[in-house]
């Protein structure tokens, strides 16, 4: 019994360490990702609005990525439909999500998480409310 408990403890510790290393590599390490060189500069004093329709709707994930829990509001993106991990233009469609404000530094952390320029592109689009927000659209594989 002691042997099984010890083995279980080692397995749980190994899985936990692997998860922590993956999170560090994905969110914080200086290796593994370089932002696109042509990103326009952001005014550090201006809060940026972000529309999330997928994983970033989850509070725990937002906290892990940007380091805090921003206030979110329900939002609708008109003219797009959700398909898997992407939204595609479609007249008359609506994609529901949330919108939240981030600083320029937090937007860079979101860019890293979404692998801006590798997996996603960031575009500013108008929401149904009339205000616009940044959102991440998958880069199509050729």
Sequence-ordered SSE layout with sheet pairings:
Layout: H1 2-27, E1 48-52, H2 59-66, E2 72-83, E3 86-102, H3 104-114, E4 120-126, E5 132-138
Brief summary of the model shown:
The protein is an alpha+beta fold. The protein is 32% helix and 34% strand.
* CATH architecture level-2 label: Roll
SSE order: HEHEEHEE
CATH topology: Hypothetical upf0131 protein ytfp
User: What percentage of the residues does DSSP assign to strands (E)?
Assistant: 25-35%
Write out the CATH superfamily name.
Answer: Gamma-glutamyl cyclotransferase-like
How would you write the strand order of the largest sheet?
Answer: 1-3-2
Provide the low-confidence segments as ranges.
none
- Please tell me how large the radius of gyration is: 18 Å
Number of domains: 1
Which term fits the overall shape?
Answer: globular
Describe the structure.
The radius of gyration is 18 Å and the shape is globular. The chain has 142 residues and is of the alpha+beta class. The protein has helices spanning 2-27, 59-66, 104-114, and strands at residues 48-52, 72-83, 86-102, 120-126, 132-138.
Main attributes of the structure:
Hypothetical upf0131 protein ytfp, single chain, alpha+beta, two-stranded antiparallel sheet, 32% helix
């Amino acid at each position: 019994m002691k042997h099984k408990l010890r083995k279980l403890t080692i397995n749980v510790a190994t899985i936990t360490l692997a998860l922590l290393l993956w999170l560090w590599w994905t969110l914080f390490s200086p290796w593994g990702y370089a932002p696109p060189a042509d990103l326009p500069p952001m005014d550090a004093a201006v809060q940026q609005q972000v529309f999330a329709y997928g994983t970033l709707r989850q509070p725990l994930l937002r906290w892990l990525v940007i380091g805090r829990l921003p206030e979110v509001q329900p939002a609708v993106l008109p003219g797009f439909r959700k398909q898997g991990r992407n939204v595609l233009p479609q007249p008359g469609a609506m994609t529901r999500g949330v919108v939240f404000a981030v600083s320029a530094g937090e937007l860079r952390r979101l860019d890293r998480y979404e692998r801006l320029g590798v997996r996603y592109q960031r575009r500013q689009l108008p929401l149904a409310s009339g205000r616009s927000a940044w959102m991440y659209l998958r880069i199509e594989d050729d």
